[in-house]
DNA sequence: TTTCGGTTGTTGCTTAAGCAACGAACTAAG
DNA sequence: CTTAGTTCGTTGCTTAAGCAACAACCGAAA
């Protein structure tokens, strides 16, 4: 287990918790580490779950089935990524299935133990609870930002908003992203071809400069203006 | 304060907490009750907040300013509605302004006191923490359902999905809603005229039956089929 | 009763962007 | 080097739905 401490400590759930604190918590929670073969299911659509999972090794996908049976990719999870956190706190059924894309390993923390402070009142336990709320809250806001994009009427507005947002997040006007074109099109909910078309138009108009997955904002005022409509 | 106990106890935050438990918690938290005149601000866009607010009396609106300065209505809050809960848990700035639409009264609970169990380890305090996480999680899932609608490509698909979803939520195939047409159009992110047009088409095709704000699903199989594309 | 604000339905016109198909560039494996 | 898989750009065609404008309806207030 020790080999995974760095991964755990890098997650938002254990942010700010010392190594000693982590060990106390593991002592207390006794989380289960499970190994999955490629194609096995970590969390099944339509079921409740009361465990918070963290991927330790390998890759997993969050997928959803459309009414006509097709599979839609929702998220991609790697080491350090957390799943089941929002679900555990609610009494709802999982909206997604988490599927092992490669052989992988995950650790499961029982939600009830996390949310109930134990007698010893570890300082780190309290930090963990705050982190849990913060983790869920941040997921909410991330989703909220996406909704703000999705409700914009034109692709141009979506792109302007997204570019400004991303620049603000990264703290610079020249930045690159990990998403590829198809991924960005998915996120913005548009056609990949339309995305290419619009990005080129914007480059021609002198609003931005493109190079592969790098973006440079040339005229933020105009971008802000066009983000509105 | 006693007069507002029923409102507090009806909220998701105090769900399952006894009157005695509520009084203990109030004793412990000493939340502030504030009165606002119409037009005053309960929570300002762009600022952090570390209080969880509950409307006790009157009406307030959650609004957002678009880049070009226009005001967009996000939510409408009445007695028993909670705000600032997701925000408090994060270290982010508020994405909305909460504005008193009428004279109103709200109570503010300090987040830090809620998230830190105190020495006395009230049973109800623990319930409250669970409720807080549940409240935030449910807001997340509500948003998630909306995203699922927004990413559908056609209005027909959005409507089919929404109708099936709403019927499932209300547990019957004939139901009515509180939203008016404009509100529903906003939620689905489409034009009100297009919404009317499409609903009528669907009625003509024998998929549904309409009467004002009542909907009757006639052919759920066809609806499910068309929800996909 | 009349009037008025608010909510719906309706309908042409216009357009942003979906769709489909193909070609170019790049990478990795054989 | 060859081949095969992936990603990205490009471009006509087509259409869903946005936009604007008006008419019908309804309930509340005057």
Rg of chain A computed from alpha carbons, rounded to a whole number of angstroms: 21 Å
Class by alpha and beta content of chain A: alpha+beta
Largest sheet of chain A, if any?
Answer: 4 strands, antiparallel
Chain pair with largest interface: A-B, 42 and 42 residues
Total beta-strand segments of chain A? 11
Oligomer: homodimer
Share of helix of chain A, binned: 40-55%
Number of helices of chain A: 9
Describe the secondary-structure layout.
The structure is a homodimer of 229-residue chains.
Chain A lengths: L4 H6 L8 H11 L2 E5 L4 E3 L7 E7 L2 E6 L5 E7 L4 E2 L1 H5 L7 E4 L3 E7 H5 L7 H28 L4 H16 L3 E3 L4 H8 L3 H13 L3 E4 L2 E4 L2 H9 L1
Helix pairs in contact in A: 6-9
The first copy, chain A, binds a DNA duplex (30 and 30 nucleotides) through helix 8.
Summed up:
Two copies of one chain form a homodimer. With 229 residues, chain A is an alpha+beta fold. Chain A has helices spanning 5-10, 19-29, 85-89, 111-115, 123-150, 155-170, 181-188, 192-204, 220-228; strands at residues 32-36, 41-43, 51-57, 60-65, 71-77, 82-83, 97-100, 104-110, 174-176, 208-211, 214-217.
Describe this structure in words.
The structure is a homodimer of 229-residue chains. The mean pLDDT of chain A is 92. The first copy, chain A, is built from nine helices and eleven strands. The first copy, chain A, is 44% helix and 23% strand. The longest helix of chain A has 28 residues. Chain A is an alpha+beta fold. At the A-B interface, helix 3, helix 5 and helix 9 of A face helix 3, helix 5 and helix 9 of B. The structure holds a DNA duplex (30 and 30 nucleotides).
């Amino acid at each position: 287990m020790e080999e995974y401490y760095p991964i755990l400590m890098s997650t938002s759930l254990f942010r700010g918790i010392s190594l000693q604190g982590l060990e106390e918590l593991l002592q207390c929670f006794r989380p289960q580490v499970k190994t999955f073969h490629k194609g096995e299911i970590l969390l099944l659509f339509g079921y409740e779950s009361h465990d918070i999972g963290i991927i330790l090794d390998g890759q997993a996908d969050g997928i959803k089935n459309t009414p006509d049976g097709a599979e839609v990719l929702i998220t991609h999870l790697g080491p350090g990524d957390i799943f089941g956190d929002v679900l555990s706190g609610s009494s709802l059924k999982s909206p997604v299935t988490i599927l092992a894309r490669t052989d992988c390993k995950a650790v499961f923390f029982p939600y009830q133990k996390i949310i109930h402070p134990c007698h010893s009142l570890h300082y780190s336990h309290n930090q963990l609870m705050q982190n849990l709320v913060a983790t869920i809250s941040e997921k909410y806001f991330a989703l909220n930002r996406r909704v703000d994009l999705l409700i914009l009427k034109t692709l141009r507005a979506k792109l302007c908003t997204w570019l400004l947002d991303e620049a603000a997040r990264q703290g610079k006007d020249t930045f690159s992203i990990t998403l590829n074109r198809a991924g960005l099109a998915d996120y913005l909910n548009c056609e990949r071809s339309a995305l290419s078309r619009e990005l080129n138009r914007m480059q021609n108009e002198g609003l931005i400069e493109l190079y592969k997955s790098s973006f440079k904002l040339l005229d933020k005022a105009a971008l802000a203006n066009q983000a509105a409509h």
